[in-house]
Description:
Order of helices and strands of chain A: EHEHEHEHEHHEHEHEHEHEEEHEH
Number of domains of chain B: 2
Shape of chain A: globular
Strand content of chain B: 5-15%
Radius of gyration of chain A: 23 Å
Largest sheet of chain B: 5 strands, parallel
Oligomer: heterodimer
Structural class of chain A: alpha/beta
Strand order of the largest sheet of chain A: 3-2-4-5-6
CATH architecture of the largest domain in chain B: 3-Layer(aba) Sandwich
Strand content of chain A: 15-25%
CATH class of the largest domain in chain B: Alpha Beta
Helix content of chain A: 25-40%
Largest sheet of chain A: 5 strands, parallel
Largest interface: A-B, 31 and 48 residues
Helix content of chain B: 40-55%
Number of strands of chain A: 13
Structural class of chain B: alpha/beta
Shape of chain B: globular
Number of helices of chain B: 18
Order of helices and strands of chain B: EEHEHEHHHHHHHEHEEHHHHHHEEHEEEH
Amino acid sequence: MVEYSFYTLKKGQLTGGGPRKQRKISIFIAYSFASESSCRFRNMLEQAIKRTPTLRSIEINDGRVAVGAKWTTVIRERLKKARLVVSEFSRLSPEVLFETGFAYGLNKSILPVTNSSESLRMMPRFLTEIQFGVLSSEDSISDVVSAISECVAKSKRNGIGVSLAGRSSPNNVLLISPNSKSEVIEKVKVFCNREEMIFQHLNVDDDFDYNVDIDSVVGDVTLLIGCVDNREQDNLINFSAGMVCAHPKAGIGKIKLPKKVVFVIPNNGGAINMVADSARRITQTVKVVKEIDMMSVLSAFAETRRKWQSNQKIEHVN
Amino acid sequence: MALVNKLDGFLVLDAEKTPSKILLDRFQAPPNFGNSLLRSTLIFGTRGSGKTMLLTWLRHSEKNDKSIRLYGDLRKITNPVSSDTGLGSLSYEGINPDLELCARAKTIACFAIWFARECKRRAGVIVPDYEFRQVLPRKLRNKDSYDLSELSNELYYTGLEEFKQGPNIEALLDLFSEVHENYSEEGLYLYLDRAEEAPYPSLGVILDLLDQAHCFTVMVAARPGLINMKSATSRLPAPGDHYTVLHHGVTPYADEWRFFMTEILKSWLPKTYSIIPDDYRSLISMLARDSIRSGLRIIHGSVDKNGRFSEACFMDSLQNLQENLLSAAQGFLGEYNRDIKGFLRDIRKDMGAVVKFPLGIKPSSPERLMLVQTERNFEELSKEEKFLYKALYTGLLTTINDEQWHPNKTYYHFEVNPLLVWQKGDLW
């Protein structure tokens, strides 16, 4: 039997002399799970990053969440801690647009990547201001990795201005729809007059050119209503919804007003696929309704807002 | 690494560089191994404990029988996977499950090419074409003819994406079984070294090979440390059940290990060992613990230029070894503790002027455990646990005497490597 002299470790002694905990740098890759090329891009990018000595220790996250986990909480945390969001836009997927909008709302650096310059035309203006990585071949993945290295080293947001999504006014309503949805437009107008809210309409007809300053239009919105109808323009709604969901409460003071995003789909139930699945999971903020049910959701929002206003008054008195 | 002294001349410390004739002449069978080596076995041992020597000896030992015995360095075999994933020894980062699956498939192809090359080189056997092609990725499978060196090169540069559709482990097992049944009359033996250096997606494949159900025998050597990380893509065979687990040098203070160590020292450095005073022999045995390499280095360096034992040379030799081990430990553990020397100094200070060896460490309260080893995800490991795994890997800490390292065990205490803390005047 060997007799040992045992030393009792003090709490934290094993690692006590360690350097201050450095926050691990992470990036978020927004890509379409349904697209094979998009998945391939994600995997290729991860491999290329891991092969780059300076980026090897970077944590790579994406929008996939384990069964049972809360999407909103998990993704919000991942996006919040990400230093950079790489968005794969080769296929204009509602998911990618929503996650990118979410990241934009959180003032994250965004690195958009696409495999064709044609897709660039469909991007909102603020995105096209950033140099897009165009993936013409597998080799160009190294250009994307270089851009990531640069962004990660800088740590500040690239090129684009600061999103106003965190400074919403509780009175602002934005409707994104083509002019053809006249009935919806009229109903929202009346609703805004009745509730003393400021109505703004963004007409996304077929000749819509995306030359829109997304910050000034969406940044301060509390109620966002988007009519999706199976067109490419629906992606703008998803992006805007992401921006709104990034900061789900409006107003100042302790008591804040929960924001609302309403996706309005045609009465026949079509175009539901144009609503990002990720958006649908944020059930507290996002509602997907048919045109005929839209007013009930708006009424419920109005009721919440009235309660919030009276609570605000109480808070002021106190 | 080769050293020279006045009495025994050159000393080659690495088994890989030792000529097979010398190795066969001087090899001593480790205690308590016996018949266990007939079954597939996972062998744990600290750095320098003689794992490579054992595997190399096993490969050479039955040269005249009709078996096929192949030795492979897992760091080299899985190098293409490390290069793709950026993962290596004790990398705590996980990768996404899709990539893990591809990395696993690439490991299988790496194994097949290593196997084919070694069969040809060592046993003059050309592996069966059909089975071999099944273990390659589709891109390389349909070539009319192939050169194994070129194929190895191509595999290195084949991206993980090409492995989405396999190969799977069954194809590799078929290849091994085919060679076992048709080309070796007395069995197929694979001796795989340095498993701790393999990236974790590859580890699943390595452990799968150990399963007792296969007709061939596999020995895998590793340092104590991570071996049972939860895999997203495969279920690992159960250690102790599907294969044997052995800890080489598990009782370094027992008489049988001391005898074994003495015999090795005598056989490698006969003249030098004979002039070492008895007191020092016993001290060296305690300090080297289970590391034969450390024992050889200290003894070899204790001779002065006139071929006599010198205490000053002994202390120099010891200090030199201490510094080497300490800088290796600091390099690996700096992320968790920037002052390993200070950590060891504090232990000494608190233990009083004279320390009695062996010296162990335990947590502040008895109910706290040092390390619980179960199948877990990387994210679940605490900072202390990561420190412990790396400390075991570098040899800063070891399991205590007679406590086997096992992938499913809980540890209440560890031993501090005596080489790193011992000072003149200490007791043992």
